[in-house]
Amino acid sequence: MKTSKSVLRVTAILAAVMLTGGMSLAAKPVILSAAPITAYAEEEGTFAKNDTFEYKKYSQYVEVTRTFRDSDTLEIPSQIDGLPVKKIGIYGFQLCKAKTIIFPDTLEEIGPYAFGMCENLESVTFPDSVKVIKFHAFECCPKLSEINFPADPVWTGDFTFDETPWLEAQRKKDPLVIVNGSVIDGRTCTGDVVIPKGVTYVATGAFSKNEKITSVKFPASVKHLQENTFWQCSALTSVEMPGVTELGFGVFGDCDKLTDLKISGKLTKIDQYTFTDNDASATITFYGSQSAWNSVQKPDGDAFLQRARLVFDESYQEPQDEVIGDINADGQCDSADAVLLQKHLLTIEFLNEEKAKIADLDKNGKLEASDLALLKQNILKNR
Q1: What is the mean pLDDT of residues 47-60?
Q2: Sign (positive/negative) of CA torsion 144, 145, 150, 155?
């Protein structure tokens, strides 16, 4: 029997209330997700305040929860009471009047709804330390047109930048919004979607409620599909995920036309609600043995899995993703690649079309000094 949509919405709301202690007026009717587990020991923390901020103090860090001042520029300190500021709490600066936010290079996590509905906010630059930006964190900021991200992928939640000029501008460039190896949004994509090589993260709810995508193919570099990835994608028929090892809550919820799934033989877990409210009958091609499939942690009695036709393909070889910046195709990104790009920029020796495409690290269609800078960063990171 198909689960009632109203029951699912109630479940979502209750989950959100337990998680956040309340609901924002800007919340949308979608199952909310939890962020990745933070490597901090669970502790209560103690509330405190100074002239500018209210904050929660833990043994190893501080979480800023509120500001008492409204100004055009809001600067969040790197330390309070001798401890690093690593988190911004839920609703922390919602409705603040600032035009610009200056984040400290100690910051690692921005909480749900933290800067939602900040009507004057125009630009933000995230430090390299930021790893997680949770759901609805910057939604409904009508002037937010400039966002500068760290070089490494950032985990983002449902509707993180919804209803901002920045997101609308990115969608006009490409409906598949990718920033530094992370899919931020794909809710305006249509037809068959191919996620490019090098992508490692996909935001929770990245394609949710998209009624126009028909298939999606992921590269092997994507290892996890987060909560609600394809929630209520009513036209979705086929998904290929050769590298995914874990399927989260509601990934294929209410996708009633889903008939073809191709899954990595390295899969280890299917969440109890991955296929919730899904009436489709699918063929699942598992790139591994039946014994490997039997060892996958999955829900007992799941109706979708019970209806599915299983095909085991042990001959499948997982494709190897290209090494980013490997201009000379020797399997690694190193100083030899930097020399080739530098010679091209100095018009000493030119790259052919294929090599130029690899060297265009910022994907703007041109080879520039900025590509060389990104290449050098990548070389240092891989040492």
Answers
A1: 94
A2: positive
Domain of residue 40, residue span? 1-173
Domain count along the chain: 3
Strands (E), 174-278: 177-179, 182-185, 191-194, 201-202, 213-217, 224-225, 238-241, 246-247, 260-264, 269-270
pTM of the model: 0.75
**pLDDT value at position 1?**
43
Please check whether residues 253 and 222 belong to one and the same domain. yes
Provide the 10 A C-beta neighbour count for residue 111: 25
183 vs 181, more confident: 183
Establish if 326 belongs to a structural domain.
Answer: no
Q: What are residue 260's DSSP bridge partners?
A: 238, 283
Rounded to the nearest 5°, which phi and psi values hold at 176? -90, 100
- pLDDT value at position 49? 93
pLDDT, one tens digit per residue, over 201-228 is 999 999 999 999 999 999 998 999 989 9
Are 63 and 55 contacting, i.e. CB atoms less than 8 angstroms apart? yes
The DSSP code for 163 is T
Query: What CATH number should be reported for the domain holding residue 166?
Result: 3.80.10.10
The answer on 190 and 169 residing in a single domain is no
